[in-house]
Design brief:
40% helix; 338 residues; seven-stranded parallel beta sheet; three-stranded mixed beta sheet; Rossmann fold; alpha/beta; 15% strand
Length: 338
């Protein structure tokens, strides 16, 4: 029987690119999808779709049967949810179920996708953070909180040694692909082009780590192929200030750059108002207090462990942004209005 790989989160921004890449390399895949998922163009001759719910143990048994490797990229990537428990059910409890059920099905290797946010902001002295740093601040929102909690679950399962577990920590993933919450940079650029962005959050001097989506996909593939069991790998790229991000994009798009900087205190007030409206009317808030507070910090990291051990080679932010802009133009996302 040929080896089969289970992919979760295959209908998301990163997961779909990962699925497409693996399928293109001839891997036999099983992709776990929800009943409500957009699966258009996902199925193929070597891609089997299995419908189910991450909260259901029987789903995991059906999905894992006959698979020897797993890429777990499923996550709730949202600013806010009326039912906060959804973050725990998907980002924490599903990881526990996977790591509990996988050994019984003969799974030998699992690559789990975490996030740079699980590591906390980078040090205030300007040095770069890394995959083994301990968060020094309380989490800013439920996404960050549950990604940290998932790390604790992973550590507990590592001690059993039942199967090989590798964890990846991508930076801010950007590039061509689905316009989900995970593709926040392209959505922000689209809003900028449509005149919906009033200014740059905070001072604009904070550095963030940006990783082109195809580089992150390759980092996952390398982690599965050559990652050391129990190891954590930061999959990042260039660390760029927020001012530099918008400066780069303004030059590419030929638009006037953003000059106005919005105080974090003001953004927090707007976020509180948006949260109240979300509770009252059930709509997704444009901003939350947690998101506003994230912009107080730098989230800058180094990827030397992945570069040295896996051969991870991220492209520069300038070249990745050029590819992203070309793709936006091809998709009509360069227009000032929808």
């Amino acid at each position: 029987m040929s080896e089969r790989i289970l992919v979760t989160g295959g209908t998301g921004f990163l997961g779909r690119r990962l699925t497409e890449t693996l399928a293109g390399r001839g891997e036999q895949l099983r992709v776990l999808v929800r009943a409500s998922s957009n699966i258009e163009g996902l199925a193929g001759p070597n891609v089997e779709l299995v419908e189910g719910d991450l909260a259901d143990e029987s789903t995991w048994d059906r999905a894992l049967e006959g698979c020897d490797r797993v890429f777990h990229a499923a996550a709730v990537v949202k600013k806010w949810a009326r039912d906060r428990r959804i973050f725990d059910r998907v980002n924490v409890e599903a990881v526990d179920r996977l790591l509990t059920r996988a050994p019984a099905h003969g799974v030998r290797r699992i690559v789990l996708t975490s996030s740079f946010m699980a590591l906390g902001p980078s040090p205030e002295d300007g040095t770069l953070g890394h995959e083994n740093q301990r968060p020094q601040l309380s989490p800013h929102n439920d996404y960050e909180r549950t990604k940290r909690a998932a790390d604790e679950v992973i550590q507990r399962h590592l001690s059993s040694g039942a199967c090989e577990i590798i964890t990846t920590y991508p930076g801010v993933i950007y590039g061509p692909g689905l316009l989900t919450e995970g593709n926040i940079l392209v959505k922000t650029f689209r809003d900028f082009l449509r005149g919906k962005l009033p200014g740059i959050p905070g001072s604009g001097r904070q550095r963030w780590c940006y990783a082109f989506v195809d580089d992150v996909v390759e980092g996952h593939r390398l982690a599965m192929q050559a990652g050391q069991p129990g190891r954590r790998y930061l999959l990042g790229g260039d660390n760029v200030t927020i001012d530099e991000v918008f400066g780069h994009f303004a030059r590419l798009s030929g638009r006037a750059p953003l000059r106005r900087h919005l105080p974090i205190g003001l953004l927090s007030i707007v976020g509180a108002t948006e949260e109240l409206l979300a509770w009252l009317f059930g709509r997704e808030p444009e901003l939350t207090r947690g998101i506003a507070s994230i912009y107080r910090h730098s989230w800058a990291y180094r990827s030397d462990t992945a570069e040295n051990e896996l051969g991870y080679r991220p492209r520069t932010f300038a070249s990745g942004l050029e590819e992203t802009w070309s793709w936006m133009q091809s998709q009509g996302l360069d227009q000032p209005r929808a």
